[in-house]
Amino acid sequence: MVAVHVINGPNLNLLGRREPQTYGSQTLADIEAMLEKRAQALGVALTFVQSNHEGVLVDAVQAAGLAGAGVIINPGAYSHTSIALRDAITGSGALVIEVHLSNVHAREPFRHTSMISPVAAGVICGLGAAGYGLALEAITPLLKKRTASGAQENR
Ligand code: DQA
């Protein structure tokens, strides 16, 4: 069975009450429950991590990558700043899909740049909570293919 770690960064613990006009009304627990259902249908084992601390996120990405698990990550504001998270992806060889609830490209200019996107297999943004489900659908065949070929490419 392939494994996927769903990693959420700073302030995503506030989903549901945080700027619902931008991020929607679903809580992180709602999103995780939706993913768990889909994962069972796809035959994927999920692990959930949320932290407001950059180092904890670095540890989580490394752990997933070194274990050969896929990563669905919404790095929150660290998307725009964290070279450490990017290095954790390249250093551990993690296969990553980056997710943003909002369309970061339609927002402030400082949200237009992501440290993560260049080292991700794919990026989904602007589709709200549905983006996480789409990321799970997308990463599953990529991981199965990677496991079958024994490859260590992350893009
Ligand atoms: C976000 C977009 C980021 O710019 C912001 O800092 C977040 C959430 C999103 O999901 O749309 O915390 O990653």
TrEMBL record:
The record marks 18 as: Transition state stabilizer. It is an enzyme of class 4 (lyase). The active site is at 23 (proton acceptor), 100 (proton donor). Pathway: Metabolic intermediate biosynthesis; chorismate biosynthesis; chorismate from D-erythrose 4-phosphate and phosphoenolpyruvate: step 3/7. It comes from the Bacteria. The keyword Lyase applies. It catalyses: 3-dehydroquinate = 3-dehydroshikimate + H2O. Keywords: Amino-acid biosynthesis, Aromatic amino acid biosynthesis, Lyase. Its EC number is 4.2.1.10. Substrate binds at residues 74, 80, 87, 101-102, 111. GO terms for molecular function: 3-dehydroquinate dehydratase activity. InterPro entries: DHquinase_II, DHquinase_II_CS, DHquinase_II_sf. Homododecamer. Belongs to the type-II 3-dehydroquinase family. Catalyzes a trans-dehydration via an enolate intermediate. HAMAP family: AroQ. This is 3-dehydroquinate dehydratase. It comes from Camelimonas abortus.
